[in-house]
Amino acid sequence: MLSIPLAFGDADLSATGTVTDVLPDGKVLAFGHPMFGQGDVAMPMATGYVHFIVPRAPGSFKLGGSAVIQGTILRDDASAVAGSPVMKFRTAPVTLNVTIGERKRQYKYQVVHHDRLTPSLVAAVITQSLSAEQNLPTENTLRIKGTAVFDGDRKVDFNTTMAPGVDQRIMFELVPAFATMIQNPHESMGLKSLELDLVVTDKIEAMAILGARIEKATVEPGEEVKATVTLQTYGEQRTTKRITLKTPDSLPEGRYILTIGDARTINRMLMMNRPHLMMTTSADDVHDVVKTIVGIRGDMLYAVLQLPPTGIVVGRQELPRLPSSKRALIASAQDTIATPFADWIQVAEPMGAAVTGEAALEIEVVKGK
User: Fold this and answer.
1) Is the pLDDT of residue 54 over 60?
2) For the range 333-339, what are the long-range contacts, defined as Cβ-Cβ under 8 Å and sequence gap of 24 or more?
3) What's the pLDDT score for residue 337?
4) Residues 273/306, Cβ–Cβ less than 8 Å
5) Which one of 92, 187, 221, 271 has the fewest beta carbons within 10 angstroms of its own beta carbon?
6) Radius of gyration of the chain from Cα atoms?
7) How far is 301 from 240, CA to CA, in rounded Å?
8) Whether residue 319 has pLDDT greater than 80
């Protein structure tokens, strides 16, 4: 047999198949069919062992594993995969420090660089490590904290809370960030290393926003807006959180919406109100986008006051709160390089638990009230 280890170390995630031929120069033909049919590739080629075969009328299959890496799969064609004794593949070290109750374990892997597979492989070794010795408690909270380093020494810091932590949430939280870095249209930024602390507690630490109340519905420019948020803590009594946001001294009179919500609320508002931040022209822009999205934490309570559209965006550069005369000089209906945008004021309060929900309140700004 031939094995293609995609992630190896404290677990073996590999594709296995039949060796068709070993040529005199050491080249190997295998499978007799494509793996992905991608043509030029660079994946480890290893010997392996078939542990047992399951004969089934609809289609038999075998369960096997990797043994010793002997070279590199260099071609993945319609009729076969082909490998050579040369070592040309690339892997990234992944270190996972898992704490479940009093039990602490460290797992180490090498994950193969592959534009399509690496993001899913990262999620797979995380879920494999979390369930290596036991299934997660039915009611649990998972906290993930650590750093991924990509090509160009570009770092992405993770700090997220899931209640409960399940495979689907891990995929949803982590895979898009890795996929965006690796599969973007400007430059594939391969993963260089990843180290994460995974801490699991045996209860659901979550809060749901039930509603909010403003202490003063009418304020002056520069005055603080104070709101009391009512939250339902899972399995406990309701609680309240006071949140304060200062309005700008130059805020025009009018009615404004104060939105109090979770990470998904901020993500949605970001996509709708500041789409220019999602526009990229380089790998560095992609890196900035990923850091912005990943930096929105699930254990924070956010308050956002949307301001009037007094700013201008040039590309991704924001020029907020410009005088109308300067906006008229820069922006033009006949030119899309500079476009208007509405800034906002945001505060975030750490809650120590996963926050869900949203509430919207209206305030009125009046000068000399």
Assistant:
1) yes
2) 338/312, 338/313, 338/314, 339/276, 339/312, 339/313
3) 65
4) yes
5) 271
6) 26
7) 12
8) no
Instruction: Spell out the alpha helix ranges (H) of the chain.
Output: 118-130, 167-183, 263-273, 283-294, 324-330
As assigned by CATH, the class of the 91-201 domain is alpha beta
170 vs 159: CA distance, rounded Å: 12
- Give the integer Cα–Cα distance in Å for 274 and 220: 27
Interatomic CA distance for residues 167 and 63, integer angstroms? 23
Pairing of strands 19-22, 28-30: antiparallel
% residues pLDDT > 90 (the chain): 70
| Closest residue by Cα to residue 198 from 243, 255, 132 | 132
Beta-carbon contacts of residue 44 (< 8 Å; ≥ 6 apart): 4, 5, 8, 69, 71, 72, 73, 89, 91, 112
* Cα(62)–Cα(144) distance, integer angstroms: 35
- Would you state the pLDDT for residue 363? 93
In the numeric block, the tokens 């995974």 are attached to 198
CA angle 324, 321, 308 (to 5 degrees): 85
343-368 burial: b if 16+ Cβ within 10 Å, else e? bbbebbbebebbbbbbbebebebeee
Q: Which of 267, 105, 262 is nearest to 198 (CA)?
A: 105
Q: Are 281 and 243 in contact (CB under 8 A)?
A: no
d(CA 304, CA 318): 18
261-298 pLDDT per residue, tens: 999 999 998 888 888 888 888 999 999 999 999 999 99
Beta bridge partners of 356: 208
Tokens of residue 88, six digits: 């040309």
Query: Whole-prediction pTM value?
Result: 0.87
Convert 47-59 to b/e letters by CB count within 10 Å (16 or more is b): ebeeeeeeeeeee
Nearest Cα residue to 110 out of 191, 172, 196, 40? 191
DSSP sequence for 84-118: ESS----EEEEEEEEEETTEEEEEEEEEE--TTTH
